[in-house]
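Sorry to interrupt, but I need a hand with the structure work. Leave the record below and I will have a look:
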Amino acid sequence: MPRKKNTSPNNAYPGRIRIVAGIWRNRFLKVANLENLRPTSERIRETLFNWLAPDMENARCLDLFAGTGSLGFEALSRGASSVTFVEKSKIASKLLQDAAKLLEAENINIFNQEAQVFLKPKADQRYSLVFLDPPFGDKLLSDIIAFLHHGNWLSVGAKIYVELEINQDFPVLPEGWVVTHKKNIGKVCFALLKVI
């Protein structure tokens, strides 16, 4: 008798993604089966963190649209001092909490809310590194960048990573922001910005 495919809620975490380097090298994060959840690929993360290598030690990171947490946990693995994760999905937020416990990660805050809601009040702390990888269809990057800029969220010299679909318009940047690195891989455009 053939087996039925398991479609129960217990199969809600069908994938996993590897941390590339650092203290948690080759450890895995679960990937929830959620629409529009698209973890940043290993190849892109390797390129990004090569760009960021001089800035990782003691970086204070904000991972908006955190999803699996692959960017924030990679940063912690490579020497960042703290990461604040913001993720609107309850399922994905629970997996972030589970991953933090499994890795025995310290200096982590996890907020289960939309990025725009998190950024509405003025900042009570500033970040030196921000990851912006929203779902491709949402087209939120320009608005989120404006929130970061006007809300006093960024330290002097802060770096901001953006990831978008290759055919999307590049986000509008505030005065004093520059693109330091930019690359296309497959259907993805990704770039590193700096506040000067």
The domain at 9-195 is CATH 3.40.50.150 (Rossmann fold). The chain has one domain: 9-195. The chain has a mean pLDDT of 89. Strands lie at 15-18, 28-31, 60-64, 82-86, 108-111, 127-132, 154-165, 177-185, 188-195.
